[in-house]
Amino acid sequence: MVMTDLLKPEEIKKALDAFAAETFDPKKFFEMVGMKAMSAENVKKVFQVLDVDGSGFIEEEELKFVLKGFSKEGRDLTDAETKAFLTAADKDGDGKIGIDEFEALVHE
């Protein structure tokens, strides 16, 4: 499965463009690409695309490249953006984002 099976390419591009030079805000980004309106089941499918190594978690190393999961034109997150994203989503403090934490962040 690829991200464009789940989300509209034009919405992905618009959201990526919005954060090209602006500090990345995961909640705002997810809303812009239409994920906030998605069912929990479809949000979990997006998570599976972003979980590159298939571990069941999005680790800090994967988070840095999360925008590339939406489009190959996506930029890398800065270290500060990566840490802020992790802090916002990692509710149990294990240093990685589980599928339920991801879904909760999207629908927050």
From TrEMBL:
InterPro entries: EF-hand-dom_pair, EF_Hand_1_Ca_BS, EF_hand_dom, Parvalbumin. GO terms for molecular function: calcium ion binding. Residues 38-73, 77-108 form the EF-hand domain. Keywords: Calcium, Metal-binding, Muscle protein, Repeat. One of its GO terms (cellular component) is cytoplasm. The keyword Transcription does not apply. It comes from the Eukaryota. PANTHER family: PARVALBUMIN ALPHA, PARVALBUMIN-7. This is Parvalbumin.
